Amino acid sequence: MSFIAGPVTVRTPASSANLGPGFDALGLALSLYDDVTAEVLSSGLEIDVVGEGSDGVPKDETHLIVRAMYAAFDLLGERPSGLRLSCINAIPHGRGLGSSAAAIVAGITLANALVDGDGLDGAAAFQLAADLEGHPDNVAAAMFGGLTIAWLEGEAAQVERLDSAVEVTVFIPSEAVSTEKARGLLPETVSHADASANAGRAALLVRALTGAPHLLLAATEDRLHQSYRASAMSDSYDLMSSLRADGIAATISGAGPTVLAFARGLGDRLPEGWALHELDVDLEGAHVVVT
Ligand SMILES: Nc1ncnc2c1ncn2[C@@H]1O[C@H](COP(=O)(O)OP(=O)(O)OP(=O)(O)O)[C@@H](O)[C@H]1O
Ligand SMILES: N[C@@H](CCO)C(=O)O
């Protein structure tokens, strides 16, 4: 196997998972991006990070993008002799906007682009991303763009992708909550009534997000995860509840603590010290940037 020298740049979108009732299944790609450039070196590993996470992420082989690249190269049969990575990050870490999924998908997409010949096909790339992330919802949206419905057939990750044109505002608190911590707050079992309520709302949500926005408030009602996680993100839970009480469809984005609202013009609801972005749905997913 051989490699091209590069450099190659990959752009990967942020994503919001769950969207209320679609826990671990629904994902929406958002117009906030990380750009990562990689090139092959004769030896060594050089990593430069600008923007989100620049102070926190490791600059060695434990860097998540490098781990994903190596995992893809290992499936393909060989790693390059050395690598240089340059990351320009806009997706905040540990906020529920799919930063880890974007890093994993960027790494796999870059590895494919640096191989001189056939890389992993779409199904193999998605399976690897879902295995590395541990659940498929964010990686589906980051890889394919749009609105994604992901599920598992045994261990095999599956995805169905739809277009969506909803407008979104995200409210991002300054403090992170790790996905690991937020998942640890979930109960082992839930009631049949709660499970069936979520199944109905999740079905309705797919319709609401693909051309029936008047259904969004009802369709984003959740009983499976948001209330269980409220203790780790009480300001976010309060903001989401107050937006919903005013008729605005709002959810906790992914594992939180970002609040996502399907509306615009909400600047007056922004808590002090938080950041706000008005975003569109990204329809492209991760892709090589052609210059
Ligand atoms: N661009 C990146 N480069 C390197 N490491 C990253 C990058 N993005 C995320 N990570 C790693 O992933 C961690 C955040 O992952 P985590 O799953 O907790 O949150 P998230 O992906 O931002 O949120 P969510 O999964 O709820 O959408 C970071 O602390 C960092 O270790
Ligand atoms: N579905 C996941 C998304 C975060 O990665 C969760 O809520 O834990």
Automatic annotation (TrEMBL):
<dbReference type="InterPro" id="IPR013750">
    <property type="entry name" value="GHMP_kinase_C_dom"/>
</dbReference>
<comment type="similarity">
    <text>Belongs to the GHMP kinase family. Homoserine kinase subfamily.</text>
</comment>
<feature type="binding site">
    <location>
        <begin position="92"/>
        <end position="102"/>
    </location>
    <ligand>
        <name>ATP</name>
    </ligand>
</feature>
<dbReference type="InterPro" id="IPR014721">
    <property type="entry name" value="Ribsml_uS5_D2-typ_fold_subgr"/>
</dbReference>
<dbReference type="InterPro" id="IPR006204">
    <property type="entry name" value="GHMP_kinase_N_dom"/>
</dbReference>
<dbReference type="GO" id="GO:0004413">
    <property type="term" value="F:homoserine kinase activity"/>
</dbReference>
<keyword id="KW-0028">Amino-acid biosynthesis</keyword>
<keyword id="KW-0791">Threonine biosynthesis</keyword>
<dbReference type="InterPro" id="IPR006203">
    <property type="entry name" value="GHMP_knse_ATP-bd_CS"/>
</dbReference>
<dbReference type="Pfam" id="PF00288">
    <property type="entry name" value="GHMP_kinases_N"/>
</dbReference>
<feature type="domain" description="GHMP kinase C-terminal">
    <location>
        <begin position="219"/>
        <end position="263"/>
    </location>
</feature>
<comment type="function">
    <text>Catalyzes the ATP-dependent phosphorylation of L-homoserine to L-homoserine phosphate.</text>
</comment>
<keyword id="KW-0067">ATP-binding</keyword>
<comment type="pathway">
    <text>Amino-acid biosynthesis; L-threonine biosynthesis; L-threonine from L-aspartate: step 4/5.</text>
</comment>
<dbReference type="InterPro" id="IPR000870">
    <property type="entry name" value="Homoserine_kinase"/>
</dbReference>
<dbReference type="Pfam" id="PF08544">
    <property type="entry name" value="GHMP_kinases_C"/>
</dbReference>
<keyword id="KW-0547">Nucleotide-binding</keyword>
<keyword id="KW-0808">Transferase</keyword>
<feature type="domain" description="GHMP kinase N-terminal">
    <location>
        <begin position="64"/>
        <end position="146"/>
    </location>
</feature>
<keyword id="KW-0418">Kinase</keyword>
<dbReference type="InterPro" id="IPR036554">
    <property type="entry name" value="GHMP_kinase_C_sf"/>
</dbReference>
<keyword id="KW-0963">Cytoplasm</keyword>
<protein>
    <recommendedName>
        <fullName>Homoserine kinase</fullName>
        <ecNumber>2.7.1.39</ecNumber>
    </recommendedName>
</protein>
<dbReference type="InterPro" id="IPR020568">
    <property type="entry name" value="Ribosomal_Su5_D2-typ_SF"/>
</dbReference>
